[in-house]
Amino acid sequence: MTPEEIYQIWAPADSIWSPWVIPVPFAQIVCLGLDAAGIHAESRAWEVDLDEASDLAIVVDLPGGDGIRLGLALAIRGFRPVPVIDGSPGPFPIVASHPDTADTALENRLHTIAVDMRELLRGLCSGAVLLKELTIPADARPVFLLDAARMAGGREIRPEMFDNRWKALPQDFPSGRMLLEKGIRRVLLIQPEIEQPKEDLAHVLLRWQEAGISIYCATRADQVLMEPLQVRKPRNFRSLWYRALALLGLRRGAGGGFGAWPPESKSG
Fold first, then answer.
1. What is the pLDDT of residues 186-211, one digit of tens each?
2. Best-predicted range by mean pLDDT (8-12, 36-40, 111-115, 120-124)
3. Which of 93, 151, 175, 233 is buried most deeply by CB count within 10 Å?
4. HSE on the CB side for 182, CA within 13 Å?
5. Whole-model pTM?
């Protein structure tokens, strides 16, 4: 499948949520020898009573491929997975193959990339295989997929690195009003710990909360325990300058999304 075909599978024309599937990570994707094995088993492990979840949307903020796999497991249960990922995988095409497949050349170049997105790309490839098998209603409940490693986990960004760090912005998501119009009254945030969301995501969730949507939190390890979450006001909330301040220090790619060599780098 070509990158365009993979993107169209994740963002089908009939889905009301497709406008929020960001195309950036699909642009350089090359899928080899991947299938959807294991995702059905993960779906059966999901314990939330989905019959009582007709008003529920989900936001998954887990690192890399873990979040994509959970989104696909939810797709089997009737949700529409929506990757909201705005970072470029790197300055060169990355082959998404089985993790046991050795790629010495790629391994040697990965130290020059701030955020390693290989597992995420594998998930997008496997997901394309799986989603082709499924029939998901156009108005299915959404599960928005982020990469918790989007800011490189505090890793030092050296001058020779391709800087593909990125942040989630309110414009990347539907408004609280739209969610309410589509029958969404609750949002479940799944992240490694039950705690306040990352600051960039807080700007999104607090807007939804102010619109009248109830926010809950659960962990990847215990998805049954949905605890109510009162999202605290992040810095510069609703500030006219928020977007500029949030993106300060990040690198925009020429083709859209985030990912570029720092100006002082000699690697590009």
1. 999 999 999 999 999 999 999 999 99
2. 8-12
3. 151
4. 19
5. 0.89
Encoded amino acid at 199, one letter: E
> DSSP string of the chain?
--HHHHHHHHS-TT-TTGGG---GGGTTEEE-S---TTHHHHHHT--S-GGG-TTEEEEEEESHHHHHHHHHHHHHTT-EEEE---B---SS-EEE--TTS--HHHHHHHTTBSS--HHHHHHHHHHHHHHHH----TTPPEEEEEETTTTGGG----TTSBB------GGGS--HHHHHHTT--EEEEEESSSSPPPHHHHHHHHHHHHTT-EEEEEESS-TT--EE--PPPPTTTT-TTHHHHHTTT--B-TTSSB-B--TT-S--
Checking if the pLDDT of 264 tops 80, the result is: no
Nearest in space to 75 (alpha carbons), one of 22, 39, 48, 49:
39
